[in-house]
Specification:
The chain contains 7 helices and 6 strands; from the N terminus they run αβββαααβααββα. By secondary structure, it is mainly alpha-helical. The two termini are 28 Å apart.
Length: 174
């Protein structure tokens, strides 16, 4: 890979980061979601049902469905997921979309645009629920050198995301 910088504009640097992020994440997330070429699934437990029943999780699942549609992936509706209709299990890919949906809801909440009213207490609760949900995914994800492949993929993706934010912040500075 190339080093960012040189005589690139912020827009060119952002494009390069986005392209690298997409390329890295695709491979890493595939390793996190599949074992021996088959999707890894997780049994839906009472703890997971409890998380799905929390405020804003229904909105997170709706956001997850919207995000998945961009990738041509179908997810169960929020209603059937929360009621436990479909669900004996979920694939790690589905759970990842729900995690991303939760990130969306929390981001919308910070901007006052979430359907669910998100004050400090609800935000704190959602952060805790999000951490529990990620732990469930990490636990089920295939391991690489003893570490969750999902955690590795998240960390790599987050590093590129922080780099992109730094470029965007720097661009706004000038």
């Amino acid at each position: 890979g190339s080093i960012l910088g040189g005589n690139k504009s912020a827009a060119e640097a952002l494009d390069e980061i986005a392209e690298r992020q997409s390329r890295n994440a695709g491979t890493d997330y595939d390793a996190a979601f599949n074992a021996d070429g088959k999707p890894v699934t997780v049994d839906v437990t009472d703890d997971m049902r409890r998380l799905f029943a929390l405020p804003a999780f229904d909105e997170a699942v709706e956001q997850a469905r919207n995000l998945a549609k961009f990738d041509g992936v179908d997810l169960p509706s929020a209603g059937s997921l929360i009621k436990g209709e479909k669900l004996e299990n979920l694939s790690l890919r589905e759970m990842h979309y729900i995690k991303m949906g939760l990130d969306e809801v929390m981001g919308l909440g910070k901007r006052g645009q979430s359907k669910t009213s998100i004050g400090r207490g609800v935000e704190r609760g959602l952060k805790g629920a999000r951490a529990q949900f990620i732990d469930i995914i990490d636990e089920a994800s295939p391991k690489v050198d003893g570490e969750s492949a999902y955690k590795r993929a998240r960390n790599k993706f987050a590093g590129d995301a922080r780099l992109r934010e730094a470029v965007e912040d720097g661009e706004g500075f000038f």
